[in-house]
Amino acid sequence: MAVLDLFIASSIPVIKVLVITALGTFLALEKVDVLGAEARKHVNNVVFYVFNPALMVASLSQTITFQQMVKLWFMPVNVLITFVVGSVLGWMVIQLARPPKQLKGLIVGCTAAGNLGNMFMVMIPAICKEKASPFGSPEVCQSYGLAYSSVSMALGAVYLWTYVYSIMRASNPVQVAGGGGAGGGHDPEKLTVSITTTTTTGTVGSSLEHPLLLHSSTSNLDKMNAAGDENSSSFLQRVKQVLARALGSVNWKTIFAPSTIGVIIGFAIGLTTPIKNLLVGDQAPLRVIQDSGVLLGQAAIPTLTLLVGANLLRGLKGSSVKTTVIIGIVLARYVALPLVGIVVVKGALRLGFIPADDPLYQFILLLQFTVPPAMNIGIITQLFGEGESECSVIMLWTYALASVSLTLWSTCFMWLVSSS
Which family does it belong to (predicted)? Predict the structure, then answer.
């Protein structure tokens, strides 16, 4: 297949994204105010609670089977590699750019977490419709592409709100005001110190004040056993405290977001043949439910793209973020990570971890290394109240340059998967 045809096939979807994104930015202008701050909040809630879950359920329930589950086992590993390598690259950017302390977590978050949901939902259907696409029938390509993208979105959400959230939380001294949980108003470090001090004080106090312990004449063996029991108890307490801190720092509510629940329901329907026969297919008795879900899910893609454009408007106002920081993030996400992705995916293909007869699956695995930073990074900065304007500037430049990066890398990836 000619490289020019592949370039056109990969550039058309990116241009579509840019056009809709520009429209979203226009609608968010103060003079227009169709997607102002209040409107974006309500539209985002509709997308978050209705459109995205419907898209997850509709796409997964149609295509997921046990054979597909076996095929997809490498995707969680692939996504984890993107996050780990991205965080290492973010640490390198910090060492070179020397940013302020409050921006270190933001930089690592932007290099580690890619937009593994929205960009795929927009790009994959558009690529499938192109005649020069190497992924076969547009209908089959779109169906499986949305299923793969749905799994990618769920995995990205889980890793973002556990791995990246914990890194940004640990590097940000500002605590989230409000209730408990991961975003509670209490500092877990101080709570742990207080608990440890209280426990130790209570143990020592009881040992000194108890009359039987003051006047007893135990043997050396009894003393050793007592010390061993105390050390064992102390060790178990430390383990419990570490587990409590680890589990307490996880934002469970955001991990089990409506989109993730939609993925779980979609898997349950797709893997349960009796339920699937009731809901999915032209002859299914309850096909109206599935058709309604498909109709709602189709609204997610254009609405999400409009919201991305509207949210980028804040970045136009600028901030004090260093140019070296932006350049470092761009090089990490659009140069270093894609090169690592080629090595990882090609290595997994050679080792037999990835099926060689599914170029679309290979393409999505490669694309996971290339997308711009996750938009939810902005939500995390809002939770901590630090780096919001800097995050908007970073998002503006990374998404603007993504038009060039995604086009070039998509062309390269299509050529790689079609020639293998």
Answer: Belongs to the auxin efflux carrier (TC 2.A.69.2) family.
**Percentage of residues in the chain having pLDDT higher than 90:** 23
User: At 280, which CATH number?
Assistant: 1.20.1530.20
CB-based contact 335:402 (threshold 8 Å): no
Domain extent at residue 224? 185-248
Q: Which of helix, strand or coil describes residue 185?
A: coil
> Do 78 and 118 fall into the same domain?
yes
Q: Are 307 and 320 in the same domain?
A: yes
> What rounded mean pLDDT belongs to the chain?
78
Among 131, 126, 6, 68, CA closest to 419: 6
Whether pLDDT at 196 is above 60? no
How much is the pLDDT for 63?
Answer: 78
Q: How many domains does the chain have?
A: 2
Question: Running DSSP on this structure, what letter comes out for residue 102?
Answer: G
- List phi, psi (to 5°) of 374: -65, 135
Rounded CA-CA distance 414/410 in Å is: 6
Question: 140: which residues sit within 8 A by CB, 6+ positions away?
Answer: none
Task: Give the model's pLDDT for residue 179.
Answer: 39
Give me the phi and psi of 387, to 5 degrees please: 80, 20
Q: Are residues 291 and 381 in the same domain?
A: yes
The pTM for the full model equals 0.73
Asked if residue 303 and residue 259 are part of one domain, the reply reads yes
